[in-house]
Amino acid sequence: MSISVLNDKAGSSVTISIIGNFDFSLFNDFKESYINSVGQYTVYRIELHQVEYLDSAALGMLLSMRSSLGDGCTIELCGANDFIRNILKISRFDKLFVIV
Question: In this predicted model, what pLDDT tens digit does every residue of 24-40 receive, in sequence order?
């Protein structure tokens, strides 16, 4: 389990990549990945293609991120496998996030 952050060269977006299980064990690291950049980027990409498991705590962390960043930015959930994509859609996250 790990998180890495990559800023684009233009400075308008940031990509947060999650590897392994996206669960409560990543709470502090996930929050640290975006909290100090509120207002700096217009697009936040959460790369999920290496996520094997996602629980309700992860859903809560994404909602907390949405709340912290406000409506002035877009949050893209990218590369989720079919199982995780289904969880996101059932939870109606497609209404709050862009699922790519």
Answer: 999 999 999 999 888 88
